[in-house]
Amino acid sequence: MKRFRRHGQESQRDRLKQELFQFNKTVEHGFPHQPSALGYSPSLQLLAIGTRSGAIKLYGAPGVEFMGLHDENAAVTQVHFLPHQVELVTLLDDNSLHMWTLRAHKGLSELMEIGRFTLTGPPGAPPSVTRVTAVLAHSSGELLLLGTEGGHVFIVEVPGFRELEERNISLDQVASSVPDDYIGRRNLEHIEALQENPVNPNQVVIGYGRGLMVIWDLEKQCAIQHIPATQQLESVWWAEDGGYILSSHSDGSYCRWMVSVEEVNEEEEEKSDIPYGHFPCKAISKIIQLPTQEGPPFLLFSGGMPRASYGDRHCITVIHSKTHVALDFTSRIIDFFAIREGPQHIGDPSALVVLVEEELVVIDLQTEGWPVIQTPYLVPLHSSAITCSHHVSAIPLKLWERVIAAGDLQSTHYSKRPWPITGGQNLAPDPPQRDLLLTGHEDGTVRFWDASGVCLYPMYKLSTAGVFHTDADPNDNMNQGTEGEWPPFRKVGCFDPYSDDPRLGIQKIHLCKYSGYLTVAGTAGQILVLELNDEAAEQTVEAKVVDLLQGQEGFRWKGHTQLDVREEPVLFPPGFQPFSLVQCQPPAVVTALTLHSEWKLVAFGTSHGFGLYDYQQKNNVLIKCTLNPSDQLAMEGPLSRVKSIKKSLRQSFRRIRRSRVSLRKHHVNNAAKLQEANARLEAELAEMELAPVQRKIEARSSDDSFTGLVRTIYFADTFLSDSSHNTPSLWAGTNGGCVFAYMLRLPPVEHRADEPVTAQSAKEIQLMHRAPVVGIVVLDGHGAPLPEPLEVAHDLARSPDMQGSHHLLVISEEQFKVFTLPKVSAKMKLKLTAVDGSRVRRVGVAWFGSSRSEDYGESGLVVLTNQGDVHVVSLPTVKLQVHYPCVRREDVSGIASCVFTKHGQGFYLISPSEFERFSLSTRCVVEPRCLVEVPLLSGSSTQRRPKPDVASSAHRNARQDGEDAEVLQEIQKSLEGDQTETCSLKAGAVMVMEAMVCLPQVIPGE
Amino acid sequence: MVLSAVPQPTSQPGSRMSRQQQHRTPLKLTDNVVEVKSKFEAEYRRIALKRNGPGGFTEFYRLLQNIHRIPGVDVLLGYADVQGDLLPINNDDNFHKAVSSANPLLRIIITKSEGEHVVLPTDSLQRRKKGLGLTGLRTSGSDSTRSKNKPGLMIGLPQNFRQISSIIDVDILPETHRRVRLHKHGTHKPLGFYIRDGVSVRVTSQGVEKVPGVFISRLVRGGLAESTGLLGVNDEILEVNGIDVAGKSLDQVTDMMVANSHNLIVTVKPSNQRNNVVHRGSKTSMGNSGSVGSAGSAGSALSHDSPSPASQSNPITASNSIAEGDSDDDDDDGDLILENDCLTPYESHRVTNSNNTNLNRPLPQSVSLPNSVGASLSDSSVLMSNHNGNPAHTSSSSQESMREDGNIITL
């Protein structure tokens, strides 16, 4: 009969589905995995990061972000913005060049690839002739100079990528004019650097790997000057006044060369220095020098550390006047640049932006002590490895403010200055609600992120390590080095992947947004209950031990031991403070956790059983052992075996890292080495994954291992014993397809503190198919999921229907099954695995609002399968509604990391450091909506200085006339006013300039 | 032979009963007495039977006829074993087996033998005759089958055996393919096979095409798969319970098979094509005789499921409806539900748990099986639930079970 579908109803339902569901991957949060290139446009105030997977990401003001992906799966090795334009050029590992642009479409900018180009050499030439090693985007915005491994410079017209063959600078042209005494006129090697003369765009300096630098006149097509450096060249910097050139070398030295105005080759090496000298040093890979309005310039360079003692450090040295600091990063430096003040970005350097492999660090160069500016985006989510995550939608304002206040107290060491990268306009509407994403980390911390909008912003960090004795002494790794240490290191950045004790790792989190109670559970069977307190407090946290084996004999736990609890009082800073600790015995990882703040109960489960804890009376209410007597594997403790795999992986990664001397180099042997290492790793991984090529087909049995592992735990106020009285109940589902239900008796509120809470076994359901139970939901009389505790009390949810009969929905990895309550009998089900072979990995309940009518919406289950597909399953009828491919099926950790929000969005890790945000809802979509305006290009390429640039002042365009007048008046006043402080006068002068530049633009604009 | 209709012992409260069984300390009464509950049409009778008493099938048969007041009516006897399979009682051997396996309840189901010889469904009770149990146009019953089993030939009747596997849908599949059903329930044997990835060669109009496929890689010695002789190493797996596995990964196929393991139907392309079912005559004559002669067991042809309404439909549409039918099938709704409404303290309740986790053990009385298994096993309201002293509940659940009964058992 089912074959005869009722067409009318079907199409109506289809239409409704379209109004309710749509799938979008909206934004990536966090820090890009394996960044490989950095670019910056001072005129657009946009930052660009390229990654080894071929992604290109642009960031401006908070909320302004763009992402593009190259079709080729090759690493981005260089990113260059065309000066004063919205185009940028990327160079990939496969030697292809790509032109990207920000195109406005319907009032929003989109990042689009508009062209690609690969250099073609003369026929028969080796590939090294055209292998691009250096790119210079000429300030005219029309030319691209490409230096190659073969030592040639190709000149290409952009944006069309038209080769201007007649203007190419071949190696022969240069080599013929090299002075004879230059080391016997040996091979000049590849082109390492190309720089334009800041004051004369016709002059470029060509730096060869050998060390030779040639100043070339593009107009006259001849060499003007030769700079005969003899050390392997690493980078070149042309000083702003055009008067001299800085070169850095592989021996850790840098040199300063005067540029002679005359045609005569009267080159002169003015100064050469090995800053960390005496002993052999590592290369200085990049050097820049920026003048200040008054006083000495800033000199910044990366590398150059003494090879033997500090060769493994990742440092950028900043020298300004007498201040000399070696900023010590925790991961490899990719690239860095400095942001300069003023409308034309030629003022004092205000901030240093450093891209290291695992984070972006921005240093405020204008505040004493050069503090770090907290980044509003690109935060390293993985500063310690993420072990779990938990999302809480629609946070009440009060809790939100208290969390922010607690977080502010933690971030006092950050600079007070605003974020210096401000390009583009964020046009996204304000998020409709406040959402929190909580991530648990390997080092025992829980981080609170503002996940309401496009920027995942850190709010607060909770550390649970203080409750326990750990091997590491907190005073041990202080940031400041000892007095007089040379080089003067200063640790910066927060990426610290090495956990003191993996047992501290957070495995489960549950936050009650109404009461501010939080419970977190960890790897060593520890469950902490925390309370939000605005004051610091000193208290002792006592552990309550729970023996989940309940006297089952013949078991010996072979895993890790429990953590040592500090017995003395511990001072907890304002924020979430632990007041109760439950220690499971055996100390196996906690696999299920929930908290009911109205009943003041916490329920938890491990691979051995589950328990119920009354955190008001600090008492155990219930302990239930679910362990199968024949299951010895459950006592192994997963750590030992998992660790060995992890360890070997880590070792292989280290091997690769070691073999990778410098990614910026494009020597064939390095690339080959890298590829070799990669191939080796891939082979190892493949071997690891594919070793068992056959799969056993066997029905599940009660004797399987880990059948007693508690997968899910759930509180519900429902009809458990009879259909007229609803009672509090606790539900637990195991890996072996068993569901336990307990009826809870809570004393009346006035006796809550002294009368005991009791739990009585009410039901047990053994699912025939024995698949792991991953979710339990009770549906009310209307078929809607029961609301969260306190949700009704806060008027944020409709109270559940207690008239109609309730239903129990058990979600196993294989099927969804609805049972009646209180008499448990199967009502309907949806099979997943038996039909398509996919299994439920993650499940959540979500509410979907219709995009067409404001008041229509329905609840549904959101499901992520092991095939990486997301499904929406209707409630209470358990029917598949829609499904979309979401995660690659091979991406096991991505699938495991997925969390769903209550409004049909979700997050999963696409790399250890990035969350992909997706939305299944038509109504709740958080995606970047931003606009970057094209700067008005004025002036020709012969212009001595870059023209004032409109894009940078895009936000000023919005300013009203009146305001401008006010600003002028203010400037006037400051000029006429006290002139005792020259400094303020200078600042005033700068401001006048700025205003002058701005005004003419504003007026025609209106 | 001593057979006496003694009164049924009063049933114990559920939780206590289950504890007894757990400790293997049955009541004195049940030590040597078997509770027999027999059902004929809608009537139930309860008697007690000495376990070790002499007597054989004939006496028992007469006794039941008397108790049900149907002397002279030809009936077939069947009993439900611990797995819920309905097994026949038609000789002394299986009668004794039935009595000895009763623990302590022996459930007898009596069916009228229509005319002569009606094949007792050899299929397990908890399976519905939907979906794959399609045999084409075999509405006339199994007359031709019966003619083969004339007494004198020392071949046991099909109802004397427990079915462990069958070749099905021979008439609608290409000759090169074989659809095998493995009956996991009722045996303690593991399914016992492994699958692997491989390359399948297909002949298409463009020539030979190589596509990834899934193959049987190993049979476990003594396992169900090996003992049937219907599956072999290097057989290509084409379908699992009617669902095409093309394009599915090895893990997906594994999961599908495990999810269907209670009633696994695999369509394979045997690597050894010599033992294929040969269709004699034209394919359109789907006569029963055409599908005999397979390499399987003697019961392979006989094991076609008994006629069901679905089997009367066109074989082609029936074949198309396999997937749908299977997904709607409630054949695995045998969830064990333990209702503990008498609210014993949980500490003492722990004991019952370990028993319930093992399906292969006898079901304690406090366990109710609301679905097909349960319905077939527990048509007694006393057994069904232990809402002690709650007659309203008892009657409702009884009705429920009767209703489900009607859905499932088509004797």
Largest sheet of chain A: 5 strands, mixed
Strand proportion of chain B, as a percent range, falls in 15-25%
> How many individual domains of chain A?
6
Radius of gyration of chain B, in angstroms, nearest whole number: 23 Å
Return the average pLDDT of chain B rounded to an integer: 61
Helix content of chain A: 10-25%
Q: Tell me which protein chains meet in the greatest interface and how many residues each side has.
A: A-B, 55 and 67 residues
Number of helices of chain B: 13
Looking at the overall shape, the CATH architecture of the domain at 165-275 in chain B is Roll
- Report the radius of gyration of chain A as a whole number of Å: 32 Å
What is the CA–CA distance across the termini of chain A? Answer: 69 Å
State the secondary-structure class of chain A.
mainly beta
The secondary-structure element order of chain B is EHHEEHEEHEHEEEEHEEHEHHEHEHHH
The CATH superfamily name of the domain at 165-275 in chain B is PDZ domain
Q: Choose one word for the global shape of chain B.
A: elongated
Structure description:
The complex is a heterodimer of chains A (1006) and B (411). Chain A has 1006 residues and is mainly beta. Chain A has 6 domains: 89 residues; 143 residues, Methylamine Dehydrogenase, Chain H, CATH 2.130.10; 87 residues, no CATH class; 187 residues, no CATH class; 116 residues, no CATH class; 97 residues, no CATH class. Helices cover 13% and strands 40% of the residues of chain A. Chain A contains 11 helices and 65 strands. In chain A, strands 22-23-24-25-36 form a 5-stranded mixed β-sheet, with no helix packed on it. In chain A, a hairpin with a 2-residue loop joins strand 63 and strand 64. Chain A is elongated, with a radius of gyration of 32 Å. The relative contact order of chain A is 0.09. The C terminus of chain A is likely disordered. Chain B has 411 residues and is of the alpha+beta class. Among the domains of chain B are: 80 residues, Ubiquitin-like (UB roll) (Roll), CATH 3.10.20.90; 111 residues, PDZ domain (Pdz3 Domain), CATH 2.30.42. In chain B, 26% of the residues lie in helices and 22% in strands. In chain B, strand 11 and strand 12 form a beta hairpin. In chain B, helix 1 packs across helix 10. The N terminus and C terminus of chain B are likely disordered. At the A-B interface, strand 48, strand 49, strand 52, strand 53 and strand 57 of A face strand 9, helix 7, helix 9, strand 14 and helix 10 of B. Chain A: GO terms for molecular function: GTPase activator activity; myosin II binding. Chain A: Keywords: Cell cycle, Coiled coil, Cytoplasm, Exocytosis, Phosphoprotein, Repeat, WD repeat. Chain A: One of its GO terms (cellular component) is cortical actin cytoskeleton. Chain A: One of its GO terms (biological process) is exocytosis. Chain A: Belongs to the WD repeat L(2)GL family.
